[in-house]
């Protein structure tokens, strides 16, 4: 059994065949999937998927790239859904993205702090998006005492030193397709150095497909390839990595059998 802890089945790329994609995941042993909604349209679609499939769980929030579009009304709407829906298991993805310039840094940081506060209010883990903003992400997590709820460093791409710092703040390190890339030194180092009880697996599908599907549309069935690569790097049986990362996810998200 595997849990894909971060997947965008609500993306337009699956509009024509989402049911077939989900069935392939089930056949590959992916028994639970956490669908992430990060604005009003993707949250609505995530809710529809959760209604259709009892093994789909939700993380909802507002993406930092679009922080400039987020209103107080949007945040209240997210809070109402997260507080009332039994399968909302986290807040996010939130964080900082300095690669794109749509939303100013100060606007992103303010929204990041508000979503950390919301996660603490609802006692839900926080799912962190970080692109080219590691210093500010770590600083804000510390300033806002995000360790109180903890969460996930989603699709982690930083150094093993930063990963260890995040683990100390009560965050899990989630690895995706890049750990399978031949020259992806940092994710491979993280997989080797971070203890298995602090690791999760994800796809971030439809993005970042693992080898040998790199450059193609990703899907949750491929999360097995991520777990297999972690097992290879750690010199552990695949079954142990699958079991432990699943246990980690179930504990963090408070999902029962």
Automatic annotation (TrEMBL):
The name under which this protein is listed is: TatD DNase family protein
Cellular component annotations (GO), alphabetically ordered: cytosol
Q: Does the keyword Hydrolase apply?
A: yes
Which PROSITE patterns does the annotation name? TATD_1, TATD_3
Q: Which UniProt keywords apply?
A: Hydrolase, Metal-binding
Q: Which organism does this sequence originate in?
A: Bhargavaea ginsengi
Binding annotation for a divalent metal cation 2: 129, 154
For this chain, one GO molecular function annotation is: hydrolase activity, acting on ester bonds
**Origin, by domain of life?**
Bacteria
Instruction: Check the record and name the SUPFAM superfamilies matching this protein.
Output: Metallo-dependent hydrolases (SSF51556)
Matching entries from InterPro entries are given as: DNase_TatD-rel_CS, Metal_Hydrolase, TatD-like, TatD/YcfH-like
Q: Tell me if Metal-binding is a UniProt keyword of this record.
A: yes
Which residues participate in a divalent metal cation 1 binding?
6, 8, 93, 204
């Amino acid at each position: 059994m595997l849990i894909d802890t971060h997947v965008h089945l609500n993306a337009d790329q699956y509009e024509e065949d989402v049911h077939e994609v989900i069935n392939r995941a089930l056949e590959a042993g992916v028994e639970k999937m956490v669908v992430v909604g990060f604005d009003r349209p993707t949250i609505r679609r995530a809710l529809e998927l959760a209604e259709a499939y009892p093994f789909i769980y939700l993380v909802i929030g507002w993406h930092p790239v679009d922080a400039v579009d987020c209103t107080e009304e949007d945040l209240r709407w997210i809070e109402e859904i997260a507080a009332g829906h039994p399968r909302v298991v986290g807040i996010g993805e939130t964080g900082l993205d300095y690669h794109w310039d749509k939303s100013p840094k100060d606007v992103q940081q303010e929204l990041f702090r508000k979503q950390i506060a919301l996660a603490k209010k609802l006692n839900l883990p926080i799912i962190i998006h970080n692109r080219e903003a590691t210093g500010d992400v770590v600083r804000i997590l510390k300033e806002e005492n995000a360790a109180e709820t903890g969460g996930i460093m989603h699709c982690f791409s930083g150094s093993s030193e930063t990963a260890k710092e995040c683990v100390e703040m009560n965050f899990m390190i989630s690895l995706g397709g890049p750990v399978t890339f031949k020259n992806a030194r940092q994710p491979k180092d993280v997989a080797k150095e971070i203890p298995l009880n602090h690791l999760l697996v994800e796809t971030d599908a439809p993005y970042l497909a693992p080898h040998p599907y790199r450059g193609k549309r990703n899907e949750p069935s491929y999360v097995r390839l991520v777990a297999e690569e972690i097992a290879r790097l750690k010199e552990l049986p695949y079954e142990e990595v699958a079991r432990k990362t699943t246990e980690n996810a179930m504990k963090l998200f408070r999902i029962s059998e």
